[in-house]
Amino acid sequence: MININLKKLEEIRQALNAKFYEREKEVDGILVALLSRQHMLMIGPAGTAKSALSVELAKIVEGTTYFQWLLTRFSTPEEVFGPLSLKDLEEGIYKRNTATKMPEAHVVFLDEIFKANSAILNSLLTLINERLFYNSGSPIQVPLMSVIGASNEYPEEGEGLEALFDRFLLRFEINFIADESNFVSMMKNEGQPVEMPSMHLEELVHLQELTDRVTIPDEVYDTLSTIRRELQDEGIQPSDRRFKQSLGVLQAKALINQRETVQIDDIAILENALWDTVDQKEVVSNIVRRHAQDHVAQTLSSIESEAEEIYDSAVRDQSTEAGMEAIQKIKSLAEDLNKMKENHASRITEIEALLDKVNSMKNEVESSRLDTAYFSMTDKKKNDNDKSYGVFFRM
Q1: For residue 224, how many other CB atoms are within 10 A of its CB?
Q2: Shortest CA distance to 63 belongs to which of 198, 262, 157?
């Protein structure tokens, strides 16, 4: 997939990782959320760059309307959705002026999201989930792509915030910088990009369209089904809607890694999506990580290592016997790769690349043995001729 927008996406990813230390997962998460049009929640103490990351992303994507607000228990609907229009109110029409407010934004950052009170909660839920805002009783489609929520803590039970928490498909726990050298580099502003890359809103929309076209192979669906069954065995039941929405996350993760097809290891990001309560988090993470191991990649790596070991051994031992044994072993590995091509059509490019390498090794070993045999035969013939010449001369 060759696309100039993909190159920009990678540049943005690298620049954000350079600017925000130890935030690689969160950077990928916020980009995945934007590409898949989903919402992301960051939970952690104040001063961990939650808002800074969101603000930086808004600056990077030019042409987007950005809305940011710190919610408190005393926040009013006017602060988030806009004040009532006095002109319309005089005519008995209850309508809000939404200019510069959340209903007109593409990207939204809501700090202390769980401080949202009942006065704004219902409208907030509808806007986040359905991308609709009811103004004067009429539903209006909003341009919202992603809401990035932040909180210093999880919502407490019984506060009626379960539905709001569920609206955030991706959830990341974020903490202070752990590595001392990274902390010092952050203090010194070392490694900071001189100029942050950017893209236009139209380019982002194009990337979202590319995300929708990323292929999901059957092995990924089968793995998700297995994960679902094992979670059920543990008493954890993510909704069907959450699993369905997760497909877009996997497509976005593949696109960020410059691929047209989702791979098994992309599933690892779902450890941040398939739990409902904090006490489920570790169990979900363990199950998802175990199944997200890319068995195809592991097999290819094992075959490549074995082929290189056989080849190196044949180079060290130039005997005909060692060469023939090496050739047979490498042929066997090539046969294994050909079988893999039949069973893993979505990974055929990687498999064929390794197959070419393995066949090249085999050809080099064969060539070296032919050269050895040729020179050996030449030397033998020369020795035989020398002996005959000596006999003739003596006669």
Answers
A1: 20
A2: 198
CB 116 within 8 A of CB 164: yes
**Cα distance between residue 66 and residue 197, in whole Å:** 18
pTM: 0.76
CB atoms within 10 A of CB 289: 14
Cα distances (angstroms) measured from residue 140 to each of 11, 96, 104, 134, 150: 35, 12, 10, 6, 26
Mean pLDDT of each 10-residue bin along the chain, 395 residues long: 77 92 94 96 92 91 94 93 85 87 96 91 92 90 96 86 92 92 89 84 95 95 96 95 96 94 93 92 94 80 91 88 90 91 74 91 85 51 48 36
Distant-in-sequence, close-in-space partners of 35: CB < 8 Å, separation ≥ 6: 207, 208, 211, 251, 252, 255, 256
Strand partners, 36: none
Cβ atoms of 292 and 249 within 8 Å: the answer is no
